[in-house]
Amino acid sequence: MTKENLESIFSKYPGNKKDGLLPILQEIQDQQGYLTDELLAEVGKYLNLPSNKVYGVATFYDQFRFHSQGQYHIRICNGTACHLIGSSTYLAELEKQLKVKAGSTSKDRKFSIEISNCMGACDSAPVIQINDVFYTHVTDSDLDRCIRSIKEKTE
Amino acid sequence: MQFDVEINNQPVSAKRGETIKNVLDRIGIHVPTLCYLSGFSPTGGCRMCVVEVDGFSELVPSCSHPVTEWMKIKTHSPRVLKARKVLVELLLAGHPDDCLYCERSGKCGLQDLAAELNVRERKYHGKRQNIQIDKACLSIVRDPAKCVLCGRCIRICDEIIGVSAIDIVGRGSESKIGTTYNKGLNTHTCVKCGQCIMVCPTGALTEKSNIQAVLDALNNPVLFPVIQFSPTVPASIGEDFNIKASKDILNLLRAALKKMGFRQVFDTSMTADLTIMEEAAEFIERFQKHENLPFLTSCCPSWVKYIESTRPQLLSNLSTTASPQQMMGRLIKNYIASSAGQKVENVFVVSVMPCTAKKHEADQDRMNDGITRNVDVVITTRELVSLIRLLGIDFNSLEPEPVDTHYSMRSAAGNLFGISGGHLEGLLRTVYQMMTGQEMSTLKINELRGLKGRKEAKIKIGKATLFVAAVSGLANVKSLVEDIEARRDNFSIIEVMACPNGCINGGGQKLNPDEKSIKSRMKALYDVDEEEMIRVAHKNPVIIDLYEKFLAKPGSDRNKELLHVVRTTREGSCVIHFTGNLCLP
Predict the structure, then answer these.
(1) Domain of A80?
(2) Does A113 share its domain with A145?
(3) What is the CATH number of domain B2-76?
(4) Which residues pair with B73 in a beta bridge?
(5) Which of B233, B348, B467, B538 has the fewest CB atoms lying closer than 10 Å?
(6) Domain-wise residue ranges, chain B
């Protein structure tokens, strides 16, 4: 992310007001894909907050990532409905098959998994999002197919 | 407004605006706490202080709940006791079972609570946190597994020190105390002051122990171990051995150190006098040239670290004079050792400081070879107490030992370095003499004494008037720096100590000090100032002797090489920008 990009984000939140913290972080993540320590320090400098406080707030929310996404970024919903229907077993399966832990990116940068709060499609639970595509009413065989297909595409 | 409330079936009068805990404290009912810190706004986080109030369905935290007129409070009802016990049991569920080996054993708030509430078995088995111990820092070791998330360290770091080096990271059961990007304290804005250790109820924060290194040196027949101690050590060590602070304790301390096996015992107050001489010369030079003012003192390593990593623009204002600890190390290794017939490589300098940051400072300062440290090992007052106990020295039955080296002579000015404002007071006495050729008429400067975080005084020296300030508690620096940058006040000299009230309340002192012991330590040092024959640094015969035999005149180039430091910023350290009001949206 260039300095100009960062400046243009800051300029939308004038006056160094602390209530700009979350939207600034969101915009940075939209452009950069994730938050780096240098960027957190810059945000802290702009808002007059220690970067440790910025980091503390950012880690409170699931929406922020601190490392780059994989080529395939998988979000698995852990809202109440999805959780009850067993999304955690799917998560375990994904972690096992793709050899990457939730909240991180595989070393070859092919896959990353993120646990998401409710995506708002509870009637279609369980819901999994791979990049921009949402998969609803996911079954064991659906998941298998998905995993196989993204593995093949990255080989 | 006064009204009555009922506590444990007894009527008690209370005032509007008080919390329940305030009332309980006043009438002498003890409720246990973990996160409560007196003087800070309560967080009500640990729930250990809950009490039962008639008409409330839930138990209420007494530290944060205001007392109201109709209240009927029960502080130790079966329901309350059960709740507290379960809380402790839950805290212990994920706590490592290593009390036997824990450094805090016997001084641990959690251990005390468990004993107090009669917790005698492990009822719940939680997931052990597998978080790495952060031990790269030379001063402070952080073991997050032992943390109970009370948040005291965060509050003191935010509100008193003002560097916000640690914060809660993550959420819910995943939350822990952490540093930015989990980089650890070492690569951080942390100033190593150790105030977090002072308030931590468990063994999650401890100083990096150097006890073994000292023992090894004492038992190495080749080495010539010598020790120096800070003036605050005799002022506070008596508390651990139930001896009132007095002049005798200095000689008892010398006797204890000799008995431990140190060949020579030095008093760091002597080099504090030397620091005054060099600083005074440095200041006067800058004052006459009108450059780099205000002159900032540099004896507090936390303050120096703060400027280096957070306020590099003030670096040129910082004094280049080495701190008394490092001066003593340099003098011993460069001069005293050889004049005593010892080889430099065999001399092992230990220093006892009330400070954890001094461990970090000693590591930065090396001899010309770039490897040998001028001060080999720094231990805190706490470590010295454990060493005295470990080596079986009965402090109370020692015979006082008089000064054994010529280099232990001190003036009262050097001795005052332990208190916020004291360093400045000592320095001004010599500055006055150097500028006017006369002594100050009254040496005591009342405006610079007392418990305030920022003290200011106007001192008339000849035709000039110096505007000086002493600041303690690093958070108080913020407004001062703003004043300096806006040139609102024309300060000439500013003394800063990171810990509140200065080194007497340093991060290496006895844990959990109360205001009474701080005042008594302060009094001990000011008493020395009243009683001592020599009250100004420039009259200390050792200092005069040193300048005659070994050093050039104060402030000269030769001394700059020997007694001064080159100051640099910390490139690559995680510079963190500072900190207005910390309230988040």
Answers:
(1) 72-154
(2) yes
(3) 3.10.20.740
(4) B7, B53
(5) B467
(6) 2-76, 91-207, 266-345+394-563
Of B61, B29, B58, which Cα lies nearest the Cα of B46?
A: B61
Q: Do the strands A128-130 and A72-77 form a parallel or antiparallel pair, or are they unpaired?
A: antiparallel
Chain A, residues 48-67, CB within 8 A of chain B, namely 48-57, 59-61, 66
A52, B170: Cβ pair inside 8 Å? no
Degrees (nearest 5) of the Cα angle B319, B325, B330? 90
In a domain, A103, yes or no: yes
CATH number at residue A125: 3.40.30.10
d(CA B49, CA A141): 53
Tens-place pLDDT, residues B490-538: 889 999 999 999 999 999 999 988 888 999 999 989 988 888 889 999 9
List of chain A residues whose C-beta atoms are within 8 Å of the C-beta of residue B584:
18, 21, 49, 53, 57
- Residue A88 and residue A52 share a domain: no
Q: Check: CATH 3.40.950.10 for B266-345+394-563?
A: yes
- Chain centroid to Cα B327, Å, comes to 20
Residue type, B437: G
Between CA B361 and CA B505 the distance in angstroms is: 18
Distance in angstroms (rounded) separating the CA atoms of residues A81 and B14: 50
A99 with A26, same domain?
no
| Residue type at position B3 | F
The size of chain A, in residues, is 155
DSSP output for B211-229: HHHHHHHHT-TT-EEEEEE
Chain A residues within 8 A of B169 when measuring between CB atoms: 55-56, 59
Total number of domains in chain A: 2
DSSP code of residue B323:
P
Residue A94 within any structural domain of the chain: yes
pLDDT of residue B585: 29
> What is the distance between the alpha carbons of residues B7 and B196, in angstroms, rounded to a whole number?
34
Query: Which tokens belong to B379?
Result: 């231990």
Within 10 A of B320 (CB to CB), how many other CB atoms are there?
15
Residues A52 and A125 occupy one common structural domain: no
Tokens of B463: 């035709």
pLDDT digits (tens, 9 = 90+) for B138-176: 999 999 999 999 999 999 999 999 888 999 998 888 888
> So what's the architecture of B91-207 in CATH?
2-Layer Sandwich (3.30)
Evaluate whether B499 touches B507 at the Cβ level (below 8 Å): yes
A56 shares its domain with A78: no
Dmax (CA) for chain B in angstroms is: 80
Whole-number pLDDT of residue B570: 65
The pair phi, psi for residue B294, each rounded to 5°, is -70, 150
A22, A50, A61: residue with CB nearest B576: A50
**pTM of the predicted model as reported, rounded to 2 decimal places:** 0.89
Q: What are phi and psi of B364, to 5 degrees?
A: -80, -20
Residues of B in contact with A21 (CB under 8 A): 584-585
In degrees to the nearest 10, what's the CA dihedral of B538, B539, B542, B543?
10
Q: Extract the tokens encoding B131.
A: 């978080």
